[in-house]
Each structure stands twice: as C-alpha cells, then as structure tokens.
C-alpha cells in the first residue's frame, strides 16, 4: 500500500481513479483497466458528501468535486511516473511500462477535457489539505 501526506482532493481523486483498475489479473501485464468502472457523478457526490459530513464541514460538495476532478490529473501523472521508474528498477513481475503508458493516456485525455474549462488555472493554495 502506498500513502503520503497530500491534498485531500488528491487522495479522493486517487480513490476514484483506482476503481478503474483490477490488479488481480494473473497474466501480463497483471492488471486490467476498465474506464467504465469510474464512479458515476452520483457515486462521487455521495462519497464527497459523506466525507464532508464526517468532518462536520459546511463546504460546498460541488466545489470539492471540482478539486477532485483536477487532482485526478495529478493521480494519473504520479502513477505514470511510478510506472516508468519501476519499469527500470523493480524485480516484481508487473507491466510497469504498460501501466505507465495507460496512466499517461488517461492523464492526456483528462487534461484535454479540462483544456478550455478554466479549472486548471486555479492556484495550489486554493485547495485544502
């Protein structure tokens, strides 16, 4: 398991993105990606509302949703870099190169989606840790 101190929206975005990956595949590349498993907007809203309610927060769930959507980019980029590094260094049998390519493709598709939305123009200190 991997964990780190990070922005809450990175953690939530990473949680949602991981819904698309199944790491029980017995054959190379030892994972399956299924983008249709990404949680629906309703599922994401439900999760975010539960998160905010648990914290006693009165924040607007729609604003947190926007943060999470942007941080999904960071999740894909992080895991793409992880795959590239491990493709050269790890002895564990896993399709690191394929995984890195998959995550970079998702990153590029998502970045293209946000291209004209203005969501990427926010500053990092606009987000809550």
Automatic annotation (TrEMBL):
A Pfam family per the record: Choline_kinase
Keyword set includes Kinase: yes
GO molecular function: choline kinase activity; ethanolamine kinase activity
Regions crossing the membrane: none
Keyword Lipoprotein: no
Coiled-coil stretches: none
Xref: Gene3D superfamilies: 3.90.1200.10
A GO cellular-component term linked to this record: cytoplasm
BP-aspect Gene Ontology terms: phosphatidylethanolamine biosynthetic process
Keywords assigned: Kinase, Lipid biosynthesis, Lipid metabolism, Phospholipid biosynthesis, Phospholipid metabolism, Transferase
SUPFAM superfamilies for this protein: Protein kinase-like (PK-like)
Superkingdom of origin: Eukaryota
Similarity comment text for this entry: Belongs to the choline/ethanolamine kinase family.
Protein's name in the database: Choline kinase alpha
Lineage of origin: Eukaryota, Metazoa, Ecdysozoa, Arthropoda, Hexapoda
């Amino acid at each position: 398991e991997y964990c780190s101190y990070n922005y809450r929206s990175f953690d939530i975005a990473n949680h949602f993105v991981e819904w698309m990956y199944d790491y029980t595949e017995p054959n190379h590349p030892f994972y399956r990606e299924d983008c249709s498993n990404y949680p629906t907007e309703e599922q994401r809203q439900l999760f975010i509302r539960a998160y905010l309610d648990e914290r006693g927060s009165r924040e607007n769930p729609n604003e947190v949703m926007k943060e999470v959507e942007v941080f999904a980019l960071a999740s894909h980029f992080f895991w793409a870099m992880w795959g590239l590094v491990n493709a050269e260094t790890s002895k564990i049998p896993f399709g690191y190169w394929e995984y890195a390519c998959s995550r970079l493709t998702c990153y590029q598709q998502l970045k293209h989606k946000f291209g004209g939305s203005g969501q990427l123009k926010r500053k990092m200190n606009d987000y809550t840790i």
